[in-house]
Amino acid sequence: TPLEERFAPALAGFSGMGPVRVGNQAAEQIQNDGYGHVILAAAQMFFDSRLPHRGDMALFNLLEGVGAKAFDYAFEPDAGLWELRGKKRVHTFSAVMSWAACDRLARIARVLQLPDRVQFWLDRRNEIRARILSFAWSEKLGSFVDADVDGQLDASLLLLAELGFVRPDDPRYVATVDAIGRELKRNGYLMRYAGEDDFGLPETSFTICSFWYAGALDLIGRRDEAREMFTSLLERRNEAGLLSEDIDNQTLELWGNIPQTYSMVGLIDTAMRLSKTWEEAFWRGS
């Protein structure tokens, strides 16, 4: 199917909010976080003993090729996970995903008892981390920022602890969670960022970001607030129990693609994180 983006002037769009686009220009963009996503998706095969088919040397060899790309492109400017059209920068999230690729490969190599490869990937992981920290922390803002140039707050920074790049109790991470909640929340929900993008100033929150925020609050020990955010998000579901990509900042109407897998995965993941254990729910009488 051709993905070349074009306008459909005959279509008014949702609530007359055209223009309607057919295709997706993102097909032409570079997003360097993808290498890390591939390795994170496959890594569990080496650690979960319940799986009928475990990861082996053949898969590890394939993943090392992906890891080499992650290392090579860790600091190449890209469009970032938000598929920005206007400019390329070295995005913190993309670089952290490259760090995660090398980190998981080192862990997999340890499981496979390959000490030389463990050290190889640890060296690359550490090199990437040191360079990220050289630009990603802003003393001026008192938080991590999204890129090496014109850095700003971005909801993807909420994932730094989830990915293992920093500890949840790292004061820099806690400060970043606080700053994002203070600066990016609109009418109860989180935007991706507050600055102008290719389409002007954002007018909607991005649903997955609010789930990320709930997860981050839980990681830093504020579970009651996390559950409040989660409950609020559940109230935004439509009659079929589905969530869209965005929520209007003023009306709280569901906007964007619906159903949105990203949002629904966020719901499931956050529900699992915030659920009581069987022991808490039943055996301890709470």
Automatic annotation (TrEMBL):
Signal peptide: none annotated. Coiled coil: none annotated. InterPro entries: 6-hairpin_glycosidase_sf, 6hp_glycosidase-like_sf, GH15-like. One of its GO terms (biological process) is carbohydrate metabolic process. GO terms for molecular function: hydrolase activity, hydrolyzing O-glycosyl compounds. Residues 10-271 form the GH15-like domain. It holds the Pfam family Glyco_hydro_15. This is Glucoamylase.
